[in-house]
Amino acid sequence: GSWFAVSEESSAHPAFKQHILKLGEGGTQLALKKLAPVRLVKNAFFEQVDEAENRGASVEELLKLLGRGRAKLGIFEGDLKNGELEIGQVSATIQEIIPVKTIMENLISDYKSAVKGISAEERFNF
Fold first, then answer.
1. Of 28, 56, 105, 112, which has the highest C-beta tally within 10 A?
2. Other C-beta atoms lying within 10 Å of the C-beta of residue 10
């Protein structure tokens, strides 16, 4: 999903997409585990969440901190400081904004490379 979130066709804000390109290894972390575990970019909002979770904040406190529209604020409106910036761990490998067609071609190519040389029996032998 992360590749598609930063694709040319994605409706995510250009500032969000550009920010993702700059993330390195460890630029995201799993957070909001009491609500619904999500991987967040480490920004000012993440720091607030991390501090709250580390001190044992209740579900109610976390919900209040999250508020309404926090993901929209970050991903679609481009507020990189206060927004909830959700993205997968693979984001550290994303180096460019490319079309969905290219993403799909890359996925298919990677799949074909991975299964090349594996016999049919091995592929489906669970």
1. 28
2. 17
Three-state secondary-structure class, residue 60:
helix
How far is the C-alpha of 4 from the C-alpha of 98, rounded, in Å? 9
Helix or strand holding residue 39 (H, E): strand 38-41
- pLDDT values of the chain reduced to their tens digit, one per residue, 126 residues: 999 999 999 999 999 999 999 999 999 999 999 999 999 999 999 999 999 999 999 999 999 999 999 999 999 999 999 999 999 999 999 999 999 999 999 999 999 988 887 766 666 655
- Alpha carbon 14 to chain centroid, angstroms: 15
- 86: which DSSP letter? B
- Rounded to the nearest angstrom, the gap between the alpha carbon of residue 55 and the centroid of all alpha carbons in its chain is 25
Q: Closest by alpha carbon to 79, among 50, 47, 39, 45?
A: 45
Distance between CA atoms of residues 121 and 68, nearest Å: 50
